[in-house]
Structure prediction request, 237 residues.
Amino acid sequence: KVFLPNKLSILKEGLFAQDEMLKIVSIPESVQKIEENVFTCCSNMEEVYISNLSKWCKIDFYDEGSVPFIYSTNLYLNDKLIENLVIPEDVDEISNYAFSFCRTMESVTIPPTIKCIHESAFLSNSVKNVYISDLSEWFKLRFGNSTANPLSAGCTLYLNGKPITNLVIPDEISEIKDYTFCGCNSLNNVIINGHIKNIGEWSFAYCENLKTVKIHDGLKEIPNHAFAHSEKLSTIY
Prediction:
């Protein structure tokens, strides 16, 4: 068990690498940066404790070996297991790798304050449901890659508690960014309105239940992999 002191701001490269005895670590809110391979091959890690979720979302993680739950470790916030992750509204960005391999989470709530989720923030986790309250803000959100999007694990997307099955793009939206609905398995039908000029790469990839897409005049280009691996897509208007 390691309880790091609240004065640390950086965990240096390889600090606990290959420490097979380490099972529990408490990371204080003072930590701002975790360098490469700090937790690589800590194969018996069981529990990670944090006290400030907002500050955790802002930590600069160098790589996959920087996150302590790479081996399916449980994540606790103020001694409570995180199963339904609610990102605080004072967070506007989520750092790369922030929740990679954290397999205790069944759902994630993304507030409209989030503007960017960086690379691999939700890589290889167990999230099944994603909750949002503002569809227009979701369209404005930038994802660093496909696994920055919590939907990428194959999730149901909920808007104000109701699953999104039939998606009509709001009129005020003119662009669909890269990866916006990548992995969303609740979508059955999508209507892309005439205001949409551009859709991003992988924007509707791996939507396993998407069957119908209707595209109004106005869209100028369909980029690489926009609908890749959405294997039930059978009708396009």
The chain has two helices and 22 strands.
